[in-house]
Amino acid sequence: MRLFEMRLNNRIFSCGYFFLILSLHLLTPFCNAGAQSVSINIHADWKFRKAGDTEWLRASVPGTVHTDLLSNKIIPDPFFGVNEKNLQWIDTCDWEYETRFDVDDSLFQRSHCEMSFEGLDTYATVFLNGQQILSADNMFRTWAVDCKKNLKKEKNHLVVRFESAVKRGIAEAKKLPYTLPGDEKIFTRKAQYQYGWDWGPRFVTCGIWRPVKLIFRNAFILNDVHVIIDQLSDSVAQLIAEVNITVEKPATFSFKIIAENGSLDSFNFERIVRPENKTTKLTFAIKNPKRWWCNGLGDASLYHISVQASTSGSGSDQKNIAVGLRTLQLVQEKDAKGKSFYFRINGIPVFMKGANWIPADNFLPRVSDEKYLQLLSDAKDANMNMLRVWGGGVYERNSFYEYCDSLGILVWQDFMFACAMYPGNKAFVDNVREEIRENVIRLRNHPSLALWCGNNEIDEGWKNWGWQKQYKYAEEDSAKIYIDYLNLFHKIIPDVVSNLDPERSYWESSPSIGWGHKESLEEGDSHYWGVWWGMEPFEMYKKKIGRFMSEYGFQAMPELRTIESFTDEKDRSLSSPEIKNHQKHPTGFETIDHYLNDWYKEPKDFESYIYLTQLLQADGIRTAIEAHRGAKPYCMGTLYWQLSDCWPVASWSSIDYNGRWKALHYAVRESYGKYLISVEDTGEYFNVFVTSDDTGFTKATLRLSAVDFSGNVLWRDSAFCYLSADKATVAYKAKKEDLTYSVNTFRIFLKMDLVKNGQTLATKNYFFKKPKELLLEKPEINYDVRKEKDNISITLSSNTLAKNLFIRLKNTDARFSENYFDLLPKEARTVSFHSALTVEEVRLSLILRSLCDSY
Fold it and tell me: At residue 391, does pLDDT exceed 50?
């Protein structure tokens, strides 16, 4: 008997940051006599070949053709050097996959067997025992077919043939009398970023990228349970469970709703279910409910419930669901300055702090649950409460949203359309309609899901990017293209959402208005790219502030160790083809240099360049975040581009492909704290603002001191603050000349601490000059290393200011509690990390770099 992976009523439990995922991995399929449906993964003994070849090679399922070619040593590492350029032949070929399997007799005796492909990428034809059983054309859909009549007990032969998505897309494009922006990729319901982006390579994959299952049942199957919050108060939560069941004939069902940990009463129901009316509603309640809160406001409390269905003589089936009890609204109300755009959770307006999410790998099956959890935990640790899943990637796996539920991270969910116009023919639209239906049903129970958004930047692209002039459309063609756009994003998709998930808001396109128009800063969400694309200075972040800043960003290099993973030593320079291939923006290095010359001195070598680009990126995004939060409540959200990478690359990410935090992520953790100190220099006046994301008023003291680079305190002052949760508070105001009179502003900084009852709530060091103008001296840094179990601490001190101190270990990764910070003179600073290294090994491998070391 072949090895199967079987899951019987798979359950997921929340425990702090982690889920315990229970699954059975058995040598012989086991059938629980009481289980109505049994799911078996068909993941063993797969082989693949290029269509027309005679030799079969080992394959992994889930997987992709690129990673299968790599594991068989047919191709080199696609991410290394310039290998990408030599691997473009792969997406022009057709590929075949096959496996053989047996079925346990007890399962074979069941009346129904469905074969389910949760992800086929993309144009696939499936054959079972020589008979075609399905044809697929959408990467984002589940493809399922009743295969019992084609199934045998032994020696089943399963074949999946993939047609080149590139060739198919080109053929579809030729059918239109005009060219649509986006080229061949838009005709294929496939992750758009695989065709290349300005942060990612072109690897147009194919393969069985999500699980393949055989689902056995008899008389019925429980398909779905949608839990709706009908009413929610401090005393009770009234809930409705809409249960969808497939039955062959009318039957009386007993339903039971229980909590896995006994946190609520059990509820029993009896209903008649008919084939023509699959959905029945069950009403139940939770007394004294614990609310689900996003990160920073409270616990992300979850109730793990099981909905069980049974009917006489046919066994039982069940679904397990994590329920988060919260209210959430997108609020858009006209005001004196335009129209608001903010989220209200459990009745409280919440400022959203976060980033944009792109797929974590070009080869999606390589993204493990552990990688999901690490990246999402990193987001939580940086005080984020929202991520925007960008429309050029994929609808992520269930575990991504489960972790967001558990960590209290809200999800702005784009549908998978980005930066292009899409066809409007019936076959395409019907395909999309089913894609939307499936994914809304799959994701709608998650309390973390905050918003459905139709697409990324298509409305802006059509109106502002010159497509109509570029493609020289005739008037009737232009009208047809835009009518197709409106039909898809203003009618079809919102109709599906409103029918299946009416409690959530739908937003047609992000942004609603292009960043070159003043209206983009007065209503809706804003993508502001004046900094970077427009070459505007960082200071413009303080002026170009919208109601909700859903995209903006700045590039930096990844850490040296990440660059070492895709280059040889001789290739580590900006002029090498290898480094250039890992910068996908057409003017990326030129743009970085434009800003770098404005803020920093010329770096002395390649490693210094890496370090300075990271400081520069942190400077820019910190400026933006402080401006956005300081404009509260006019602005109520800031999501920078982007959290992480899909390969090792120079990009806008704050965490590089290998999971290493850039300087930006450390800066974001501080800038997204509950309390934030920011400074406004008007030229005449010096204003200090404090922004609070607490839910009520806070009494605190702002302490200020002017300190020179040798640690001498020139003056001190303090101010009592009464901080509102509704807006930024001016905590301190003075004439600039009064602060800087008779002092050398090239050699001092302003140290600010917000203190309450002896506890420091926030800190900020403000420099009066740009980094290149500061008169820094090379610091003498002393350090002491200590270890307790696997926790290592390094206490550092310096005789003078060590600006932007970067700590790393040679040939070893370490996640330091702090990094890229200002080590102040005459003050000891302790950083810690977990490692199995000895104290002596740490001392020998410790590398310290401050700003002075880069010139």
Answer: yes
List, in order, residues 6 or more apart from 597 with CB less than 8 Å away: none
State the angle between helix axes of 606-630 and 663-671 in degrees (0 to 180), rounded to the nearest 10: 20
**Token code pair at residue 303:** 């109730």
Distance CA 360, CA 332 (A): 32
Residues 630-663 pLDDT 10s = 999 999 999 999 999 999 999 999 999 999 999 9
In 3D, which of 394, 358, 357, 360 has the Cα closest to residue 657? 360
Closest CA to 807 of 669, 663, 622: 663
Model confidence at 183, in pLDDT bands (50, 70, 90)?
Answer: confident
Rounded Cα–Cα distance for residues 548 and 586 (Å): 28
pLDDT digits (tens, 9 = 90+) for 328-381: 999 999 999 999 999 999 999 999 999 999 999 999 999 999 999 999 999 999
Which amino acid type is present at position 84? E
Residues 703/705/709/711 CA torsion (nearest 10 deg): -80
Separation of alpha carbons 723 and 392, rounded Å: 40
Answer whether residue 3 shows pLDDT above 60.
Answer: no
Q: What are phi and psi of 770, to 5 degrees?
A: -65, 155
**What is the reported pLDDT for 263?**
66
Taking the C-alpha atoms of residue 150 and residue 148, their distance in angstroms, rounded to an integer, is 5
- For residues 660-673, one letter each, b for 16 or more C-beta atoms within 10 angstroms of the residue's C-beta and e for the rest, the string is bbbbbbbbbbbbbb
CA-to-CA distance for 639 and 616, rounded, in angstroms?
Answer: 18
Q: Report in angstroms the alpha-carbon separations of 514 from 451, 465, 518, 523.
A: 20, 9, 9, 11
Residue 853 host element (H or E):
none
163, 396, 457, 670: which one is catalytic? 457
Backbone angles phi, psi at 325, to 5 degrees: -95, 105
Contact indicator for 564, 81 with CB cutoff of 8 Å: no
Q: Tell me, rounded to whole angstroms, the distance of Cα 274 from its chain centroid.
A: 41
pLDDT of residue 9: 33
Which residue type sits at 56? W
pLDDT of residue 1: 30
Tokens for 686? 């010096």
- CA-based torsion, 486, 548, 497, 12: positive or negative: positive
What is residue 445's three-state secondary structure? Answer: coil
CB contact at 8 A, 768 and 774: no
Structure tokens at 728: 């930024």
Residues 6+ apart with CB under 8 A from 767: 749, 750, 774
Q: How far apart (Å, rounded) are the C-alpha atoms in residues 377 and 234? A: 29
pLDDT for residue 6: 32
Q: Give rounded-to-5 percent helix, strand, coil for the chain.
A: 25, 35, 40
pLDDT digits (tens, 9 = 90+) for 293-326: 999 999 999 999 999 999 987 788 999 999 999 9
Query: What average pLDDT is seen over the chain?
Result: 93
Taking CA atoms, 148 is separated from 115, 120, 130, 161, 163, in Å, by 9, 21, 14, 21, 26
CB 190 within 8 A of CB 395: no
Angstrom distance (rounded) from CA 841 to CA 528 = 46
pLDDT tens profile 431-486: 999 999 999 999 999 999 999 999 999 999 999 999 999 999 999 999 999 999 99
User: Is 393 in contact with 191 (CB distance < 8 Å)?
Assistant: yes
Q: Is 260 a catalytic residue?
A: no
Q: Beta 57-58 vs 47-50: how paired, if at all?
A: antiparallel
Cα 554 versus chain centre, distance: 17
> Phi and psi dihedrals of 90, rounded to 5?
-65, -40
- Nearest-angstrom CA–CA distance, 484 and 519: 25
